Amino acid sequence: MIKNHYNKTAHSLKRLEVIVEAAVLSGSDVHDRESDKSTPDPVFDPKGKTAAILVNGFNGLGLHTLFSVFRLFGNSYKNYVFVEIGSIDAGNFKGADEIDHLGSFVRNETSKYMDYMKAHGYYSEAYYSIGTDVVDEVNKLVPAITEKFPDIVFFGGQLVFSKESLMDRWLHNYTVFAIQRNLYVYGIPFVILPIKV
After folding, report:
1. Residue 35: CA atoms inside 13 Å, Cβ hemisphere, count?
2. What is the pTM of this model?
3. How far apart are CA 155 and CA 169, in angstroms?
4. What's phi and psi for 93, nearest 5 deg?
5. How would you label 60-94 residue by residue, b for 16+ Cβ within 10 Å and e otherwise?
């Protein structure tokens, strides 16, 4: 029953994946910009506002969260930071090679966000970690991120089911809410954006 539920959720999330191909091909969800090869690479603005976005791959959920930041806040943010945690579990803990592969995968996924933002004229960086507890790993990364980007707001997407059941509430552990609570303790703003599936 649990496996069936996760399979149905995965099928629902595939509808979000359409945005990945569209975003890569057109980039129309981020501000329209003239593509000019002579434009220099974006540079870090230490006084600029920074949006830090929690992602779990270059996928529909992450892109919906990114595009929601643009829709809600326009051009307010000059710097973008993408934070991803490679979660080690029984499925991928089969030896050092698998952990190395997971690390390479996470680096590759966050670099896609950085390339995407650079192509649209925004400075971006990526921070990532590998571990068994996503919340703990995010907590370890936050001090380095906030030191470099003091004027920062964190963002995370949360799946919202049109007809939420008890099983949805039980199986989807709301990691983003736990991270939000931890950051609030340190006075760091964290905005949760709903992603409807």
Report:
1. 7
2. 0.81
3. 21
4. -90, 80
5. bbbbbbbbbbbeeeeeebbbbbbbbbbbbeeeeee
